[in-house]
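Hey, why these numbers?
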Amino acid sequence: MKGADVHSADPEQVRRYRVSKYRVALVREGSIPTTWDKTVREPGDVARLMAPLLVDLDRETFWVVMLDGKNRVIGVNLVSVGSLNAALVHPRETVKALILSNSAAAILVHQHPSGSPEPSREDLALTERLRAVGDLLGIRILDHVILGHDGAFRSLADDGVLGGGR
């Protein structure tokens, strides 16, 4: 049909295509009870916020804590549910909720069902990759907190992984 006028073409030869129309929205699913003022000042604040969601889970889960420009928590999003010792995390899935919630910054959080908050090589590589994506989008990745058992946690920002400790 190269060069032919679509309006004068044989109707049998003209295909009609339907293109989907989408509207993307962030949906609030509930709330998390907390006893502090919702401003993140240190990794312990994140650990206290997230621990009730992650207690007694038998597999690794990866979350993103969404923050406004004053580091106040505006929401949390479950990015991935994995297996006993791994969770598949893709940057696209991680930043989706951050963009939709107009987050200025974020904190990455996951737990190790083994109980040890020691970061793996994969944890370190993922942190760097997500920090680079955040830089590209103008969303600061402030920390990656790994939770273990009995209130134990590890801050990769404090370890210098995100460009220096606090």
